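Quick check before the chapter quiz. The format below is the same one you will see on the exam, so make sure you can read both the input and the output lines.
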Amino acid sequence: MLTHEANERLTRVGPGTPMGNLMRRYWHPIATKAELDKEPVLAVKLLGENLALYKEPDGSIGLMAERCPHRGASMVYGIPEDGGLRCPYHGWKFSPEGECLEQPAEPENSTFKHRVRTPAYPAQELGGLIWAYLGPSPAPLLPRWDVLVRDDLERNIGISHVPCNWLQCMENSMDPIHFEWLHCYYGNYVFTKMGKPPVMTHRKHLKIAFDLGEWGIHKRRLLEGDTEESDDWTVGHPILIPNILAVGDSNRPTFQIRVPVDDTHTLHYWYGTKKMPEGSPRQENVPIYDNPVFHDDGKLVVETINGQDMMAWVTQGPISLREAERLGTSDKGVIFYRSVLMDQMEKVARGEDPMGTVRDPAQNEMIVIPREGEALRGFQQNREVINDVFKDIVGTRR
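Here is the expected output.
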């Protein structure tokens, strides 16, 4: 178990908190390109800060505090123009760097505008997502992970608004054994109740292991019936520090990105891909869809693998009461992950870059993530039944 103080340290992400300081050293996705193409100014929230994301007529992207420093009106209703965003209330215009450029009602020779600024942050598009950096300058490079930049992949993005702290989502990824029970044993029970056949073969974990790498923690498992030559054991797949699960194989690599909106809400991106036939043109527009947490009647979705995960996260409460938990030996990945986060917070407190920071452009051409050949193949999933139920519940809603 953790102390209350340690739990607060790991979960709180607002300005000035230890975890908030760490999280502000990384780029986070805050919207999709498709959403910003549809509406050029969007209300977004990241790490407890209310922000206005906008696209200028020339396609440039900006991000600033939602509250105008003049009289507090929302910049989400502002007018995007070349060179910045104009407040709808009195026309004050702000640059992408947060400088006040114009105050139309002030005297022509006034220097007042030079003494007014608004918080503003870098934002970039990559892989169909809009990414933001809220930390100190100079900003690190936005990592060009392989799934975001490979020309041979067709992409889609699922979006879930999860009403709980981001750490609950990430700790799930450091717990390989949950797949055996939540998705196999419980999942088969759910499908049986629906009048459908069991969808997975239950197999026992013989061993689990966790190794610290350049970008995060590699998670490995040895399943009953496999040998230690299995790439589930020799390679596994990583959790990219601080908040990305990379899973899938080279033909269908995926990301699950858990973005801390605030202390009790997480914006979850299910970033899926599949390899396109050789010679196919690069995908220009990435479709997005809603991946619901709840059914229309308010019940949690438990008929999909994604929904089962979200049920486990949400039912722990807005912030899990870790001081009341009782961890066993099978929870060693969760314990290890917490210790790595604690170490990274200490590095930031010392003025150092945390792990996974990219500053070398040569290294950032494309960062290849090692993964097993086919993740979780040992569970022999009935993909046809699983996919049919997923389509019924999710659908393409956007």
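If your answer matched, good. The chain has two domains: 34-133, 146-393.
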